[in-house]
Amino acid sequence: MSLVKNIQKSLIDALTSIYPNPFSEKDFQINQTKDEFEGDYTIVLFSLVKSLKSSPELIGKQIGEHLITRYPELFTNYNIIKGFLNLTIADDYWNNLLHQHHHDNCFGKHAMNGKKVMVEYSSPNTNKPLHLGHLRNNFLGWSVAEILKANGYEVLKSCIVNDRGIHICKSMIAWQRFADGATPATTNKKGDHFVGDYYVKFNDEYKKEVKELVEKGMNEAEAEKNAPIMLATQQMLNDWEAGKSEVIDLWKKMNSWVYEGFDFTYKTIGSDFDKTYYESDTYLLGKDIVQTGLDKGVFFRKEDGSVWIDLTADGLDEKLVLRKDGTSVYMTQDIGLAKQKYDQYKIDQSIYVIGDEQNYHMKVLKLIAQKLGLPYANDIYHLSYGMVELPTGKMKSREGTVVDADDLVDEMIATAKHHTEALGKVKDFTTEELEVLYKTIGLGAMKFYLLRVDPKKKMIFNPEESIDFHGFTGPFIQYTFARIKSILRKETLTKNTKNESLLLPLEKEVLFTLEQFPSIISEAAKELNPSTLANYLFGLAKTFNSFYAEHSIGNAESEEKKQLRLQISVMTSTVLQSGMQMMGINVPERM
RNA sequence: GGUUCGGUAGCUCAGCUGGAUAGAGCAUCAGCCUUCUAAGCUGAGGGUCAUUGGUUCGAAUCCAAUCCGAAUCACCA
């Protein structure tokens, strides 16, 4: 049980034995005591004043006395300042915590709870390479999955590949017309970049054609519809849906190039999936559900034959679920796929890691599922995250203003190499060891940078100022870990005994922070927010570094102190490592 | 126009289930490596928490209005 829970419990006991009223943990607040006051945790007494009809000083004194006499193993002291009851936690509590958990690799993790969750993330289009926005999505999805696992959930990671549609045909048409048979192999280009170039080429050509038509006197909207290359693309989409073999073959060929590129990137950044869905397989799903909806009167058919749902009563609009020609729209297949996931895996919750531009779509999806009375409707959860923007505004792949994922990864690894070489601490490493290290640090910096911000907030990335390696960063935490490991190579933990000596303030501060790790993991899962973890780990590393600077471990005042500090170091390294792993970040033994 | 989200230090962000003098990192300035890794530590300066009003013993946090920014509201995906 966490310390805060312990305090809550003892406080309720104190209150109920002193006063006649019933109490719950909602009746008071427990905060960390501010540095300038003596104590560890603080009870705010004001909220109790009204119901107890007493002064804060008196209430505080009664509670304080009760707590230190009834729970001496938890509290040793108290003081009251202006309505705040500051409690000092007994050293013995910290010593017990350390004694029990310093060698516990599972500290903070929860036992399996029997619940199954699917996390869908990444979801790329097969017409262009991954960019910075995709990285945020991948790191978030991965991290949330790991955090849920640590909380006892069985997690399935899934990915829906957007591999069909007009946008895919655009790169296909451009390749047909302009490539002259070139392939990734003949041009020595990564497959996804190769295909992406033709997507850009399409748009250049399209713009040119539209301009020409407008110059000939056509209005812009007409020109956009009638540009020859667009007409050809439309035709290609029709041919694809009709199963025309040469189109299908081209589609397969170009997609395979893209997948080769994606596989490389996913491997580098450490993304993987238990199940991959392809839109070319799922795009017809959900049509049967439309019929059910019509039968139930949830949907209605317009005169032209199209099928809709009226959500105006819920403050939304009318939404199309089936076109007049009977073909399905995005919403249709999303409903179908949601059902398939549920049927296939019997999941208790389905988390979709999708950008906030789709908030409306996901809201409608859930609402439709609810109105249809589908059993999994309430278990659909949209983990919405903000876009990554440049100082100049949104990234647009069509205009080439994107930060490419592969480029950024390379740059980060190169920067890690640069820093490492400049410091010259690992000159004895082999080439292979160095490569692993550069990757660990470079990717660590990048992942931490993208995960430390609250997912739902949009973030600004300035490519001019490359991602930092100092301060509130991944390498800072990795460095703290490496430092501890360095000590542990020199000094050995010989005794597993419980400390009895008086704890110094910084020793206590590290223990105080370590104690919160289990609560942080729960909170991160509850909020589906890795930034909670990132902030915590940074705080822990910072506290440890202060402790490290102030107190010698190898040359401690006494053998007992040395063992105490080694235990603190071991436990800190374990927590740093397991926390970073939940963000998909490795920690190096040396750096 | 409707809906939703956001506005905190020069920059990037914490804090938001109301609590003590609003916190970090970067950047700037001043210190600390002949003992465990200086990718570190210690300190300084830097704020009308968008604005106005309200609720409260107490508001960055809750409510209302206003201003600014973003997303979205397609027989696109």
The first-level CATH class of the domain at 405-582 is given as Mainly Alpha
Helix proportion of residues, in percent? Answer: 40-55%
- Fourth-level CATH superfamily of the domain at 405-582: Isoleucyl-tRNA Synthetase, Domain 1
Q: Strand order, main sheet: write it out.
A: 7-6-5-11-12
Q: Which overall shape is indicated by the principal axes computed on the Cα atoms?
A: globular
What is the distance, rounded to the nearest whole angstrom, between the alpha carbons of the first and last residues?
36 Å
User: Remind me, CATH topology of the domain at 405-582?
Assistant: Isoleucyl-tRNA Synthetase, Domain 1
Mean pLDDT: 93
Would you report the number of β strands?
A: 14
**Oligomerization state of this entry?**
single chain
**How many alpha or pi helices?**
22
Topology diagram in text:
Elements: H1 3-18, E1 29-32, E2 41-44, H2 46-52, H3 56-70, E3 75-81, E4 84-89, H4 91-101, E5 116-120, H5 132-150, E6 154-161, H6 166-178, H7 184-187, H8 191-215, H9 220-226, H10 228-241, H11 245-269, E7 275-278, H12 279-282, H13 287-296, E8 299-301, E9 307-310, E10 318-322, H14 330-345, E11 349-355, H15 359-371, E12 380-385, E13 388-389, H16 405-423, H17 431-451, E14 459-460, H18 474-490, H19 505-515, H20 517-527, H21 530-550, H22 559-581
Parallel strand pairs: 5-6, 5-11, 6-7, 11-12, 13-14
Antiparallel strand pairs: 1-2, 2-4, 3-4, 8-9, 9-10
Helix pairs in contact: 1-3, 4-19, 5-20, 6-8, 6-10, 8-9, 8-11, 13-14, 16-17, 18-21, 18-22, 19-21, 19-22, 20-21, 21-22
The chain binds one RNA strand of 77 nucleotides through helix 2, strand 10, helix 15, helix 16 and strand 14.
